[in-house]
Amino acid sequence: MRVLVLGGTGVLGRNVIPRLLERGHQVRALVRGAAQAAALGRVGVEAVPGDILNPACLPSAAEGCPAVLHLATAVPRRGGPQDWSINDRIRVDGTRNLLRAAVAAGVRRYVQQSITFLYGDRGGRMADEDAPLQVPERLRSAAEMEAMVREAPLEWCILRGGAFYGPGTGRDEEWRQNARDGTLRLPGSGGALVSLIHAVDMARAVIAAVEAAPAGAVYNVVDDAPVDHRTLYGYIAARAGGPEPLPGGPEVSSLGCSNARLRTELGWMPAYPSYRSGLSAD
Questions:
Q1: Global pTM?
Q2: What is the tens place of the pLDDT at every residue in 119-128?
Q3: Would you say 2 and 66 are in contact if contact means Cβ atoms under 8 Å apart?
Q4: Tens digits of per-residue pLDDT, 165-203?
Q5: Which residues of 117-130 are buried (b: 16+ CB within 10 A; e: fewer)?
Q6: DSSP 3-state assignment of 207?
Q7: Is residue 46 within 8 Å of 64, Cβ to Cβ?
Q8: C-alpha angle with apex 27: 25 to 28, nearest 5 degrees?
């Protein structure tokens, strides 16, 4: 199957594309730079110039592709300016552009990367896919993105990923460096839960979704073990040889999520069931 990938040069896309190729799919990727196009071409990807925010280039890119993967993001680099406006535009304007092009080109399957943070603060309760959304204002663009996908006349699937980590994300390196420097600080008292997902396991869920997800499916893509920040950061500090993390950092939402539906319906199982194996893989 020929698959069009948006976001093919990002952390997730770089993990998804090799897995599509090894399973015999033909991959077309929309890229903005000549160097990126050349690099992808050398590994057997049909790279076409374009931008998800430019609607004129998308119909031809989607032509002849039974499936489209929207994995494009513009997440600000850690430690740099936290300007989320382009990411919001990709979620809203970009998704609108891509859906229109996909429908016009006769695309059948459509997979949308999303986020579990749309469930908001759940305290100690686990969130499955039927939990009501409690969308923070800063994530309105993600909720709008999902709403557009749900209304599209396509065999769509939404993958709500947990807190992303693994090589290339920058999260692991930041945790370890802060732990070594003694600046790893717990959010509040450290009791808030978080559901993590390793980049490799998110990529494996994308492959399962494009090949087998039923139309209209929504899945949480998280590991098996929601963990409180006190436990997680304590483990990181111990592995890095740093002091115990101190409390008092900015509070965060407490959100633990279930992956039971993804396991049951698509047979997906995380290669890294918890932070312990995931952090050992870097």
A1: 0.96
A2: 999 999 999 9
A3: yes
A4: 999 999 999 999 999 999 999 999 999 999 999 999 999
A5: bbbbebeeebbebe
A6: helix
A7: no
A8: 155
